[in-house]
Design goal:
heterodimer, A: 381 residues, alpha+beta, 11-stranded mixed beta sheet, two-stranded parallel ribbon, globular, B: mainly alpha, two-stranded antiparallel ribbon
Chain lengths: 381, 538
């Protein structure tokens, strides 16, 4: 037994007793529920932003300012809202440049040039050359020295300050989710015979409805019970993948999975292709964290960027057109069969989760209610 | 044949021993009793604001401590504020219907006839007896004077009502005695005091209309009538309120008002959990002893309870009930949580803000459930070793062992800690844990010679301990009468015997107590030239 395994055994000992009623070798397999409390694009950020040698990418306002003379600028009305309209609708024919990102040609996005990144070798190809399933791309090295790390999402957004850990976009999304209960990700691990090592478990992803249960500091409390969002007894999200537990760490095989998302006033039924989860099973505290790896659709990602409030590109320093162009250029997965252009970005996400109990719809209650009562209509998107 | 046997069994029951009662007494209304009366008389919409004086706990019960409770100047001011607030609400809101026959608004002139009727009607409900002519005329005088000064009859009525609500006849329950016509040179409670004692015991509120009528007619002095009223009241849903009030007092739930937990250590134990934890235990008890009419002792071994989503997080169990609603719940047969002593209410209340306390828990079980008084620690106890964060002792057992080597401490710790240590797998908020500071927790111990290895064993030991049922009898009687049974061994032995024969059903015990002669027995007080009621008022 390695020192790490020994430590895991000791840490999981309390959880074992919580979930396993007896030491009977033929005991029923256990089910563990989790609710995701935080979800972030995994960014490797160095102290002096060395990974972005050209500095952070400019925002929409800065780009606009660089295209007008001081005299032109002075000719605009004083009201900020009117100015913002000029900035956002700066296409040659007044187009909204987020809705029509190709209507202008902005300076190229500043992308990550660093060597290291979070992620895994999604395509099993260390040189980054095109394969039937990927397009040519640059690989990163892992933070522990691994080769062939695929994470084009980081390369794309790593120099956009709003997406970095101190930016507002992802922290807004996390706080909106926790305060509203929208886009709640539930994860259920079934068939667990052994919390330390189990070569066959199933992991199912659901959307939860209702509110998060928070402590006095606004943190999500572990061991609360949550309802699944369903329609006529059928969960609206229900993707199941196979996995295993190795030394107390859950690992799933690659599979396409739909995961709910809410943030910055937008709902996404996000699809992560060839998704893999890597999550340490929690100890007595019921809290844990993990990583999700997979390919994220370019159009899916851009629709999220485009759908943000019109003030966001200016307030949070990003510009839609350079992101749109770079996202297509950097896409490295799932080539379109006709054009050959890749349609997805290799990605890595960090998440935090806590233990939860997942309430499935009860058949007897379905007779009186056809869907998750209490769920906001808007939450069903 | 069977019928004959039943008659025989009933007839063969030992008869109630005749015992002398204590001198008559005076008790202050508890906060719950005050609130219940206001709600019953004026409607549930009346908001009773303000703070009540801190209750006095004597011999384990506030109901007994109420004998010694006084009204401080500050409390009197609060009573006055509450009385004015209640009367304003009654006069202005939907509760104005209770002011009939003086319900018309906008009247300026004083109306003596309706005022007299109103004061008589409300005073009877508040004083739990008919008012005397003098009392009525005094209150009518208050209404008259206020109406004339303010030129507003409503204001006059409001002031008159407030004066009833601050009167000692309302705020204090006085035992009023009279000569017993059936026994020379003996006293008995008068019928209204009898009705009041019965009603506060079973319902924790004033006598209802039928009981007051029975008292007024003198019918309540007949055994049959008393028994039929006891039957009626025990069948009422209001019995739940009475049982809840008794266990709220017994389990010292008033201490929840002062309970503090470190939210960094126990983030799940917030205000919602504090509220639901009390309700969980009270629901479990009423379901067990009333709805299911089960053996009282099984309360310490039962796995049946009720759960909310808020409690589910602290217990770490799945709850399907929507937030704010309750669902029945049964802990698994191998779950270490067993009995009401395994509820959060008991475990969290008898712990420190940031850690558990085997000593406090053991002391609480001795005091509350076994009626065995454990003295407070001496003032000069050295806790430094116990509280030392760098102590090599990882578990409470190790720390207590070191602490108890002092002879001054060992005596008490010997009788508390082996009980509390059985509950050590529940932390200061009552959450389950296997380890403390990474060391496995040993939950073995013993209760009065019965050894056990875990909390389930403690539950069984409590279940089988003769002191458990004796204590309940003592406390229940004291709760209803305001007196303990210590000097009445024959009566105690009789109740113990009957409680056992009744399968330790609390319903039967309450019925026996409330239909007994002893429950209402009084002896001659040292009057020193005063009537009891005059003494009470003073």
């Amino acid at each position: 037994m390695t020192p790490r395994t020994l430590k895991t055994v000791l840490l999981l000992a309390p959880l074992l007793t919580l979930t396993t009623p007896s030491n009977d070798a033929y005991a029923e397999p256990q089910t563990l529920g989790f609710v995701v409390t935080k979800w972030n694009t995994a960014m490797h950020e160095t102290r002096f932003m060395d990974e972005c040698p050209e500095g952070p990418t400019p925002g929409n306002w800065e780009i606009w300012e660089s295209t007008v003379t001081p005299e032109e600028r002075r000719s605009y009305p004083e009201a900020l809202i009117t100015q913002v309209r000029h900035v956002n609708y700066r296409g040659p024919n007044g187009e909204d440049i987020c809705a029509e990102p190709t209507s202008v040609v902005d300076p190229p996005l500043k992308i990550v040039e660093g060597k290291y990144s979070y992620g895994i070798d999604l395509d099993n190809n260390e040189d980054g050359q095109a394969t039937p399933k990927t397009c040519t791309h640059k690989n990163f090295a892992g933070l522990n020295g691994e080769n062939g790390i695929d994470n084009q999402m980081y390369r794309l957004m790593g120099c956009v300050e709003a997406w970095r850990s101190y930016g507002h976009i992802e922290s807004n999304a996390n706080s909106h989710r926790v305060s509203s209960g929208l886009g709640m990700i539930l994860m259920e691990v079934t068939g667990v015979d052994d919390l330390l090592n189990d070569d066959s478990v199933k992991v199912i992803f659901y959307r939860g409805v209702g509110s998060f249960t928070l402590d006095s500091k606004g943190e999500v409390l572990p061991f609360a019970s949550y309802e699944i969002d369903h329609e006529n007894g059928e969960p609206r999200y229900n993707d199941m993948v196979s996995g295993k537990i190795v030394d107390g760490v859950l690992k799933t095989v690659a599979a396409d999975v739909h995961i709910p998302h809410y943030g910055n006033y937008q709902y996404l039924r996000q699809l992560i292709q060839d998704m893999q989860v890597d999550m340490e099973l929690p100890t007595e505290s019921g809290k844990t964290s993990g990583m999700v790896y997979g390919y994220y659709g370019v159009e899916q990602f851009y629709s999220y960027v485009r759908g943000m409030l019109t003030s966001f590109p200016n307030r949070h320093k990003f510009s839609c057109p350079p992101i749109y162009v770079a996202a297509h250029e950097l896409a490295d997965g799932h080539p379109d069969p006709e054009s050959g252009e890749c349609t997805t970005l290799s990605s890595a996400f960090k998440f935090n989760a806590v233990r939860a109990f997942i309430n499935h719809p009860e058949p007897e209650k379905l007779a009186s209610t056809s869907d998750s009562s209490g769920a906001l209509a808007i939450n069903r998107r | 044949m069977i019928g004959a046997c039943l008659i025989c069994l009933s007839a063969c029951e030992p008869s109630e021993p005749i015992t002398e009662g204590p001198p008559p007494d005076v008790r202050r209304l508890t906060e719950d009793q005050y609130r219940n009366i206001i709600s019953d008389v004026f409607g549930a919409s009346i908001v009773v604001g303000g703070r009540f004086d801190t209750p006095v706990r004597t011999e384990g019960l506030q109901a007994v401590g109420a004998r010694n409770a006084t009204v401080t100047a500050a409390a009197l001011s609060q009573y006055d504020e509450m009385a004015r607030s209640i009367s304003r609400q009654v006069m202005s809101g939907p509760s104005r219907q209770f002011m009939a026959p003086c319900a018309a608004t906008g009247q300026v002139e004083f109306d003596e006839h309706c005022t007299t009727q109103l004061v008589t009607k409300i005073g009877r409900l508040l004083f739990r007896r008919p008012m005397t002519d003098r009392e009525i005329s005094d209150r009518v005088g208050v209404v008259r004077e206020t109406t004339q000064r303010l030129n507003d009859f409503s204001e006059g009525l409001s002031t008159g009502l407030a004066s009833l609500l601050v009167s000692p006849q309302f705020l204090f329950v006085a035992d009023v005695v009279e000569d017993d016509p059936n026994e020379s040179n003996a006293l008995r409670l008068n019928a209204f005091s009898k009705a009041t004692r019965l009603s506060f015991f079973l319902w924790n509120r004033s006598p209802d209309k039928r009981l007051l009528e029975a008292a007024e007619s003198g019918e309540l002095h007949s055994e049959d009538s008393l028994e039929s009223h006891v039957e009626r009241m025990m069948a009422s849903p209001l019995l739940k309120a009475g049982v809840r009030a008794f266990f709220t007092d017994l389990l010292e739930f008033s201490e929840f008002d002062f309970l503090e937990k470190d939210s960094l250590i126990y983030p799940a134990f917030g205000a919602g959990a504090v509220r639901d934890a009390q309700e969980q235990t009270l629901r479990t008890i009423t379901d067990h002893v009333i709805t299911k009419n089960r053996d009282y002792r099984d309360l310490f071994t039962t796995r049946d309870t009720f759960m909310t989503s808020t409690l589910g997080m602290v217990y770490r169990v799945q709850v399907k009930a929507r937030p704010g609603t309750w669902e029945p719940y049964q802990f698994a047969s191998d779950d270490p949580r067993i009995g009401i002593q395994g509820h959060l209410s008991f475990l969290a209340l008898n712990s420190h803000p940031g850690r558990s306390s085997p000593t406090l828990r053991g002391k609480a079980i001795r005091n509350m459930l076994l009626c065995q008084q454990v003295p407070d620690p001496p003032p000069d106890v050295d806790f430094s070793g116990f509280n030392d964060p760098n102590s090599p002792s990882k578990t409470a057992r190790e720390r207590l062992t070191a602490h108890s080597t002092s002879a001054a401490c060992a005596g008490c710790h010997r009788i508390t800690d082996p009980i509390g240590l059985a509950l050590e797998k529940f932390d200061g908020a009552g959450q389950f844990r296997q380890t403390e500071n990474d060391a496995l927790i040993d939950t073995s111990g013993d209760l009065d010679g019965i050894a056990y290895t875990d909390s389930a064993g403690l539950g069984l030991a409590l279940h089988d301990n003769p002191a458990t049922t004796k204590c309940l009898i003592n406390r229940l009687y004291a709760y209803g009468s305001g007196n303990n049974l210590s000097s009445r061994n024959e009566w105690m032995a009789y109740l113990e015997d009957r409680f056992s024969a009744d399968g330790y059903r609390i319903m039967s015990l309450m019925k026996r107590i409330s239909a007994s002669k002893t429950f209402y027995a009084v002896s001659a007080p040292d009057m020193s030239g005063q009537t009891i009621e005059t003494a009470a008022v003073q």
